[in-house]
Amino acid sequence: MPTALLAANAADQLYERTLMTAADDRCRLFSPDLAAALDASRAQARGATLRAGATQDQVLALEQRARGKAANVACNAKDLTTAAARVRTGFEGYSRLLVMVYPGDVASWRADRPVSALIPVWRLSQPASFGGDRMIFGLAGGSKALMAVSTFPNGQRPYAARIIVRDTRRTSGPYIANGAGRSLAAKVPPRNASLVFNAKGRDEAPPSLLPKNAKAGLAFRFPTAAADAIAQLDPREAITVEFTLPGSGVELTRKAYIEVGDFAAGRAFLN
Fold this sequence. Notes:
The protein is α+β, with helices and mostly antiparallel strands. It is built from six helices and eleven strands. The chain has helices at about 5-25, 30-50, 55-70, 80-90, 225-230, 265-270, and strands at about 100-105, 110, 120-130, 135-140, 145-150, 160-165, 195-200, 200-205, 220, 240-245, 250-260. The strands form two sheets. It has a seven-stranded antiparallel sheet. Helix 1 (about 5-25) runs parallel beside helix 3 and helix 2 packs antiparallel against helix 6 (about 265-270).
């Protein structure tokens, strides 16, 4: 399908789903489960619009128009009630899904709605390998805490971790090097255009959160503000997770990269 047509289709879906999400916020048109499904679909359409070549400013303007339209429609207007009925029909099955996989250009996010009261499980996760080291990154447990669970060979144990994210207030768009291809390292911003979030806690990782076949590892917890910052990014870019390990006289740094992809859509799917 031509790129221009893909962009138009994605933009139309974003407009419609933003309008209906805003109308639901004001008029309470849908059940909580259906509203969460609609919001996840809105976030996914937003990512598709950006991937199709729209700029952040164009997307923001489109969303603003949709919210303005929703604000000026009466809750009992015939057009709105008809559109709400179509949403209920179209999203009824989607709202009952327990698992969703959001493919990206390089990596995927897996979203799981089921949660255990006894065993912490990944709710939204993306695995990464960097050299001989492995990590799972995402939201875990009933509180959907942002975490990085890592395992290092030879018993190495990092004592600190941080997330580096593009600062959307100081930049106009993502940093993606020409010919970046599948290299996530080529899709991260320079340090002077980034926000840094330090881990607020470090614990032994429970077995249920470890990478496959790992026997032990560390779980680093990050503030909710870091998840909010990731959700604002372009789906084509990447974030950096840095681990600091003790070395011989100098500290050592290991870097892992996570594709932003449909993080925002996966997060909304869990609500």
